[in-house]
Design a protein that fits this description.
InterPro entries: Transglutaminase-like_Cys_pept. By secondary structure, the protein is α+β, with helices and mostly antiparallel strands. It is built from three helices and eight strands, in the order αβαβαββββββ. It is globular and about 40 Å long.
Length: 147
């Protein structure tokens, strides 16, 4: 359950950035990427990694758990669905900060501003604990010529 009294973002101080980098690197090294189909025999499953294997979702969830245990607010740590290279779906952890949103990813140990990831963001968890928020911009209305 999400505590709605928690802050919706994290003050981006040096020690927070160091923590984000440390957790990203450690979890990325600890979990070997493996698809849900290979690991679980199903197309899609959201779970913590079992053993040392997991897909992108399974790798982001322990990062969030460790960051919460370190004192960061759960409401600022949101799973996001993105489209990566080759148009494949991918999950990352978005950290809402006072300096903008940062992304933790299993494909890199770098902690990047979301605009520098090269991903197209589709949706992310809502900060109030209810569902997902679309990040896709609606198409512009068709232009009509007037006389």
């Amino acid at each position: 359950m999400i505590d709605l009294s928690e802050p919706v973002d994290v003050s981006l101080k040096t020690e927070v950035l160091v923590l984000l980098r440390k957790v990203t690197k450690e979890v990325n090294l600890a979990v070997v990427p493996m698809t849900d189909r290979t690991h679980w025999g199903v197309e899609d499953r959201w779970d913590y990694p079992k053993g040392s294997y997991g897909d992108c979702k399974d790798i982001q969830l322990p990062k969030r758990k460790r960051l919460i245990e370190a004192g960061l607010p759960r409401r600022a740590l949101l799973m996001a669905v993105v489209i990566g290279q080759n148009d494949e779906g991918h999950a990352v952890l978005m950290v809402r900060t006072t300096a903008g949103d940062l992304v933790l990813d299993n494909k890199t140990s770098a902690v990047l501003p979301w605009r520098l990831t090269g991903y197209r963001f589709v949706k992310r968890e809502g900060q109030n604990g209810f569902g997902w928020v679309s990040l896709i911009e609606p198409p512009l209305p068709a232009a009509h010529a007037s006389r």
